[in-house]
């Protein structure tokens, strides 16, 4: 095995390794959105007897590199020579299956250490609310890292509004910093940025505990869904409750689903 810089246009995919089936456009799109060639890790490559290079690991980043920079862009590779097809398959499986998933909170901490602009801004917003992002949830600690990142990435200033609204509604309690609740309230405020009255929103939420809101959202979701998929019906329930008793349509909130439908009509 040795290291070599190879043009991405020369790195091929062997369908017999099932790499084609495992390619996910959504993951490639995510890589493209945070692309930084300076931190691109080495691909794992098999150089066969005919001199051609086949990817065992790194196909998504290789495709993104080719799309971003063209086929002549070179990337670092760990190159194996003389492998049998069964040895290639074993390395492919090891590279794509036998990895321990990195916890979101660990990625968050590493991003802070790397001074990532988005994560640093989000962390500052969390701290401004008297809270911290950690691996577990307590009164002043948020363990729902992915929800915090999803809301914080939408627009600057949204996350503090969400966290303070939740705290006003249910106080700072470990049940307050719920993944679904953070996402749903983020949807409501983001969709109605210039309309929503945060004090009315907090009073609306206060009418029932977090668990009650979640229970009804789960019932509205096909097959139960995950916390992300249940956030939209939860947001819609919140909007309905908020609008109850309002007669002035200008003061009413628009559900995130309806806002998306209207936007698509004018595209």
Automatic annotation (TrEMBL):
Domain of life from the UniProt record: Bacteria
InterPro entries reported for this sequence: DUF6551
One Pfam family it belongs to: DUF6551
Protein name as catalogued: Uncharacterized protein
Natural source organism: Actinocrinis puniceicyclus
